[in-house]
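Re: the 102-residue chain
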Amino acid sequence: MSKNKKKRKQLSHLESVVKQNEEKLQETQEKLYQEALEKLKEAEEGEVIEKMLKNEAYAFLLAEGLLDKFLEFREYFHRTKAQNALYNLVADASLGGLWIDL
């Protein structure tokens, strides 16, 4: 086999490998894109639920006449020791996801 034929065969093989790798890369990119879209959709759904729960909690505070009490609770010096301990536990946990676990 001449050197030119051998080099053409090697070049053809390399081109084939490059094409296969490009196809695999394209498939991987598409898969990652779809996974990212799914995660975004899940996050948006969680935000909708969280917004609804916060609105319900706010409506409850208003309906029960507890808004002033809540606003006082937000200021450190108005909290009882038990309230402050619970507040600190919740704040330190820095839980991700919904603020009320369903």
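The mean pLDDT is 88.
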